[in-house]
Amino acid sequence: MKINIFNQTEENITNYEKVLKKIFKKLKDKKNINIILTTDEKIKRLNKEFRNIDKKTDVLSFINDEDPKSNGDIFISLETMWQQAKEYGHGCDREIGFLAVHGYLHLKGYDHETKEEEREMNELTEIILKEAKLERK
After folding, report:
1. What is the pTM of this model?
2. Residue 128: helix, strand or coil by DSSP?
């Protein structure tokens, strides 16, 4: 899997790029993904435009139906990611990894509308993060 990482912020994302590549290099997927690191303002605008929800969120996933070699795009708000890492008491590497894997699983058809779906999605997320040595502390 090829991962394309784009930065829509003023932040240095070198460390996040390393973490994200480490996570996804172990997955056996022939399709590419784009990960876009963005701001609360930009993700709020996307959430309003595509989901009609006028508030910020941590991660949004968009399937790319036009490119058969792509799974799609994952947008992650760095500002919300930092806030959540602090709230949950773990590092930013773990939080950005969690959000990226969560977004990826949505692209692969997983959801969390029911308790069972949520349990399955969370279990898969933890398995992938454990492989990258980003377990919950």
Report:
1. 0.94
2. helix
